[in-house]
Amino acid sequence: MGKDNQAKHRQAARDLKRRAAVRQPYERLLIVCEGEKTEPQYLCEIQRAYRLATAHVQVLHSQFGTEPKQVLQYALTVFKQGDQDRGLHPREFDRIIVVFDRDEHHSYHAALAQAAAQNGKLRNDNRMAVPVEAVASVPCFELWLLLHFEDVLAPLQRHDALERLKAHLPGYKKGGGGHWLATQGRLNDATARAKRLAELTTALDGTQPFTAMHELVSRLVHLKD
Question: Which helix or strand (DSSP H or E) is residue 210 part of?
Answer without folding.
Answer: strand 210-211
